[in-house]
Description:
Mean pLDDT: 92
Largest sheet: 6 strands, mixed
Number of strands: 6
Number of domains: 1
Shape: globular
Order of helices and strands: EHEEHEHEE
Amino acid sequence: MTISKKYRFTAESELKPLALNRGTCYASDMITVEGFKVGFLYRQEPDFNGDSGWRFLTGFETDYYMEQSDNFGLFDVNVIANCDPEIADYLDQPVGSAWGRDPSIGNKFTEIKDFDTTDEG
């Protein structure tokens, strides 16, 4: 049985061109279905041709949630930029970069220097 997800973003034809030609990424359903802002983003080595390496989470995902592959989807990076336009400023960061929202500075993103972006992590 396939469960259909109701995504929070509009039809692809209505998306703004915020991050075009950046490839694909993985994002949590908490962003794409539930409508939360991106709280944590990191870039790892791409898994396949066309993968940007970007991964987008809210920061509220539990270990159990993270283990369920159905809680994630593969999207064009522009779709996630339309879900949360604040990420667009970070998309030129290199592989190995990680950023998280910091409530002490108005929920702006700050670099996380000690996050392991490798799959073995």
